Each structure stands twice: as C-alpha cells, then as structure tokens.
Amino acid sequence: xxxxxxxxxxxxxxxLTTDVRSGNIISxxxxxxxxxxxxxxxxxxxxxxxxxxNKEDADALMSIALAExxxxxxxxxxxxxLGVSPRYVQCPNTYAYYNTSQVSKATSPAKMLMDDVESEMxxxxxxxxxxxxxxxxxxxxxxQRIILDEQLHLDTxxxxxxxxxxxxxxxxx
Length: 173
Known about the structure:
Order of helices and strands: HHHHH
Oligomer: single chain
C-alpha cells in the first residue's frame, strides 16, 4: 500500500541550518494535539471500523495515514536540523507530553468522516498560519508542499463522506 500523496517531490531538509524559531513554528504540525501524530492515530482507528464495512475505503484511510507518517518524518527531520528536538509534546519547549485526547472516538461512518474532514481542514489552516509566521523560505517550501497533500486528503474524505451520506439517505450516523 502506498501513501496518498501528490506526485511531486518534497523540498529537502538536508540543507537546513539552526533556526530554532522556525523549528518551534513547524513543531505545531508534528505532535501537538491536532498535529500529524493525531491524524495518523485517528485515521488508523477509523480504518479498523471501515475494514468491516468496505475494504477499499479502509485502504484509502490507511493510505492517508501513511502520508501523514511521511509528514511526521519530514517535520521531525526538519525540526532536528533547525535545532528543535522532535519530542512528542503538546507545545514546543515544554514537558506536556502528547496524549490522544483529541483523536476522534467516533465509530459510525458519517461521524468518523466528518471528524476526518474537520481534522484536514484544521491541518490546512494551521499550516497556513505557519506560513504567515515563517521567515525561512526553505522551511516555508516544505510546509507548502505538505499543504498540497492535506488538500488531497480533504478532497478524498469529502468524497467518502458524500458516498456514506448517500447510503444513509441524508440520515446522520
């Protein structure tokens, strides 16, 4: 199974040098309560439920989770090169460790997909906020590329939501 990503290269983090400010800014996409790690856990959890309903849809969720794992890898490497430890914390420079409190606990198809759509919309908005704060063009290019994948994920979740909304004839699940 392959991650659901656009067929475009990611800008390299290999040439990044110490820039703690930029590292702290992008850390919010990494392991905060609404960051990439939460997305992976949520989409894998939802995949289990969709596995019972429709294997193809479950595979789509797993492909998105794999893409988010790739984003974790990219952000973690960039943070480290920028001088920020890629720790699993809710805010940079704290010891408030990551927890799963914001991972959706929904189990019905429509609610799971609504939560997934919301997660992607929040991710895009958070990454766009990062772009406004970033002065480092190399780091901004990495974030812009990740946003493109997040938009693809959002479109995919919206299509799935439409499919399951049609199955329920407009009823909320």
